[in-house]
Each structure stands twice: as C-alpha cells, then as structure tokens.
Design brief:
The protein is of the alpha/beta class and about 475 residues long. The protein is built from 17 helices and 21 strands. The chain has a seven-stranded antiparallel beta sheet. A six-stranded parallel beta sheet has the order 7-6-11-10-9-8. It has a four-stranded mixed beta sheet with strand order 18-14-15-21. Strand 19 and strand 20 form a beta hairpin. It binds adenosine-5'-triphosphate (ATP), 1-O-pyrophosphono-5-O-phosphono-alpha-D-ribofuranose and nicotinic acid. It catalyses: 5-phospho-alpha-D-ribose 1-diphosphate + nicotinate + ATP + H2O = nicotinate beta-D-ribonucleotide + ADP + phosphate + diphosphate.
Length: about 475
Amino acid sequence: MSTMNLTLLTDFYELTMMQGYFKNNKTETVIFDAFYRTNPSGNGYAITAGLDQVIDYIKNLRFVTEDIAYLRSLSIFDEDFLAYLKDFRFSGDIYAIPEGTVVFPREPLIKVIAPIIEAQLVETAILTIINHQSLIATKAARVVYAAKGDGVMEFGLRRAQGPDAGIYGARAAVIGGCIGTSNVLAGQLFDVPVLGTHAHSWIMSFSDEYSAFQKYAKLYPDKCILLVDTYDTLKSGVPNAIKIFDEMKANHIPMPYYGIRMDSGDLAYLSKKARKMLDDAGYYDAVIAASSDLDEYLIDSLKTQRAAISSWGVGTNLITSKDCPAFGGVYKLAAIMNENQEFIPKIKLSENTEKITNPGNKTIYRIYEKDTGKIKADLISLVGESFSEDEDLMIFDPIETWKKTKLKAGTYTLREILEPVFKSGECIYKTPKVMEIRNYCAQELDTLWDETKRLINPHNVYVDLSDQLYQMKAELLDKMSLTE
Ligand SMILES: Nc1ncnc2c1ncn2[C@@H]1O[C@H](COP(=O)(O)OP(=O)(O)OP(=O)(O)O)[C@@H](O)[C@H]1O
Ligand SMILES: O=P(O)(O)OC[C@H]1O[C@H](OP(=O)(O)OP(=O)(O)O)[C@H](O)[C@@H]1O
Ligand SMILES: O=C(O)c1cccnc1
C-alpha cells in the first residue's frame, strides 16, 4: 500500500484555499497542530495510531497527470496554479507522537511546520487517518483491559465500514492490544498474527456435528477450536467436542492448542457448564473461546459473573467503535512565521473555554513519578523552554488555574513525547513493526494508574501548560478582547 497516491484525498476547500494562497503570494511558513478534545468512549486516555499511513501519504504526495486533468475539469483552477501543482512536493517538517503512545486531550499529536499552501493541503488526510486508527486502537485497549490478560482476537472485518476500515482498523486493534486478527490482508500487510476458528457453515455442511468436528480436527490438530453452539451447546456441541479430544488423545495426537468456541446463548452459564464437562473429562487446558456481539462492558460483566472464558473474539463493536463512532481530532493553525523568521502565535477563540486553541510552537513533556514510573501529568510548553528534573516544577491546570501542584526536584522525570518525523520534506523517522508498536503500547498503558484505565468515569490525567505558554495565551486573549 505504500505506493498508493492519495493526493486528492482532501476536501475541496483545501484546494480552493491553496489556489487563493498561491494567487496572493502567501508563502509564509506556518504551524498547524492536530489534536483532539475529548477521549472516545468516555475513556481516560487515547492511544495514537496511524502515523505510518500519514508518512506514506506525505511521501507519495504528488499531483499526477490524471489528478491535474481532473482538477482542470472542475473549471475552477487556473493554469498557473495547476502548473504549480505539477511540481508540488511536501517540503516541510512534521513532528508526531509515536504510534501506540498514551495521549490526552489538547496535546498536539501531529505538528506540521510548512509553507501554508502545503500545510493546508494535508489537513484532511492526516485527520482521517489519525482519527480512525486512534479511535480503534483506543477501543481495543478498553476491550483488552476488560479481558484482564486473556487474548482478544479482532474478528470485525465483515462488519467494518468497508475494506479500509477493516484493514486499518485491524492494524489499530493490534496496536491497542489484540493478539491478532481474522483479517488475512491485514496480516500480510502489517505482519501481524492471523487467527481464527471456523463458522457454523462448516458444521452445517456435514451430515452431523460430530463428523464436522472430526474432519476439522484431522486437518488442524494443533489449533483445534471447535464451534459448539450450532445445535445445542451442552447436549450436543460440548459432548461431541469431548469425543473428538478423546480420539485425538487415544491416537497420541499432540494437542498444543485445543478447545471450544461458543457464539450464542448465556455465555456465563454455558461456559461454566462446559468448563465442568471438559474438566471432568480431564481437559483442564482446553480453551473456551467466546464471541457474540461482545464489547468491553460485556466482557467485564462476564468476568464478574465468573464466566469460564479465556479467549475472546470481538468483531462489530470493536472494528466500528460502535458506542463512539468518531474520534474528533482537529487541525488548527497555531503560528505564522514573520519576515524575521519568528513564529507569531495565533489563537482561535471560542465561547467554550475548552475550545480555545493553544498558540505557538509547542512541544509536550510527559512527567513521570520517579518512584512508580506512572504518569503524573503532561506539560505542553513552547519549543525552546527548558526544564530540569533537578529543580522544583510548578504545574497548574490551564482552565482552573488555582489548581496547582509543586513537583519536588528529584521526584519526577521528564520525557519529550513529540518526535521529529519529516525534516525539510525528508522522512527521518523509521516506523517500528506493528507488533513492536503493540509491545510499546502495552508498556505505555503500564504508565497509567488503574484509576485512569477503568472503563467508567476514569480519573483524568492533567494536561498543563508551561508558565510561558500560559502567559502567551493570556496575552493573546487580552489583545483579542481589546480589539473587539
Ligand atoms: N451471561 C451474560 N451476561 C451478559 N450478557 C450476555 C451473557 N451471555 C451472553 N450475553 C450477551 O447477550 C447478547 C445476546 O446473546 P444471545 O446469544 O442470547 O443472542 P443472539 O446472539 O441474538 O443469539 P443467536 O446468535 O442464537 O441469534 C450478546 O451480546 C451476548 O454477548
Ligand atoms: O459478534 P461479533 O463481535 O461481531 O464477532 C464476529 C461474529 O462474526 C461471526 O458471526 P457470523 O454470524 O457473521 O458468522 P458465523 O456463521 O460464522 O457465526 C462470529 O461467529 C461472531 O459472532
Ligand atoms: O475465526 C473465527 O472464528 C471468526 C472470524 C471472523 C468472524 N467471526 C469468527
């Protein structure tokens, strides 16, 4: 997919504005921040994902002959602008928070520094990519959290909102913690495990359930998960599965991974009964997998009900993030460079304090508690400000400014989480493999307290502004109100 040209994957207005910037000789370098305002699904954090696809998109940005011809056919773009587009390349800098990182509202996930005409074009594609994958990665992290260490398989392709959502959703789901996916193309593209059992049609295609199980076990003895709910889970499915396991045992066939899957009915009741039947037959290590419209809340409830399930297949609710279908990331202008090569901060006002943007050329420091390695807060600062772990650090809530905390020198550590990705149009970032991102994401989740990870009413991590950034914002707001 890396050679795919998505240059026209943009909103029409980006192109009409680009022509406007071109005609008005607006060549100044600007800074845009991509950030979001609210965690999806009422979560206490989000997981970033999609950067690798943004990188591919930027690398392949070029208006090919067919693109120019199409734009010409719209009868709105002049020849001088179309000629400019022919040689268009992204020439700017991009900074981003690496995929799989735990992030919080209002933090720039991606920062674009480029001539305005270039920075404007990339808005839509960056948002569609990052919004989708971050949404699904976050949802997956919730589902995996609910599963408390059990494996969660991503099964959603057939109910995803189309092929792209299925493919990149599977990628994001693995980043968020799924152990693999049923999506074979995602497996090939991203080198992630492909997993699966079999469908009811397999059972129904044979004259009886027992024969269907027997044929499946013969073909796949080392990954033998039998679907037991086609006819009657406890009266037929589980007893037939046990018969098959007995035969395999009698024939000394190794059974490294075997068990059953149930896909309907009361999963707590049925799994407990099935567990007892399997244990009574000596199959203590038989896996009980479950699927059936699951989500994080149902898995959590089934855990509370002590369901004897140790493997989870989750489709529709995960791949579509059904309870929260949009991530809500936005892309806002933060600064414009003047003739003296200085960034002049820009701010977007709103009636809603939370919606007022953070101006200037910013970066983000993550503050960890030294003893525990857990996140204490994040600090959005201006580029060039320096902080020392050997000095006390006063942080305060940017909205309720009286909420202050003084971090004592030596009790905290700092990590800058925005990393350089493009420098003068050249990619200088190497994306780790998806399974490496998944491991990194698991470590990231370990830096959160359980209070932030709980599914309902989580504790919000503080995202504070540095003193300098706060002052700059306050001054801009003051100026704005004076000019009104
Ligand atoms: N013990 C349980 N506690 C809470 N929810 C459960 C429990 N067992 C199953 N569920 C959920 O209840 C919903 C309905 O499940 P059920 O299998 O009875 O209906 P169904 O999927 O429509 O059945 P079928 O597949 O036979 O048409 C599913 O979302 C399932 O995950
Ligand atoms: O329930 P979800 O979370 O979306 O998980 C995926 C579902 O897809 C399959 O059902 P489907 O009825 O499509 O096929 P089947 O005949 O194999 O059960 C599978 O059995 C799961 O129930
Ligand atoms: O392999 C499975 O069991 C599977 C795959 C996709 C959807 N439902 C189930």
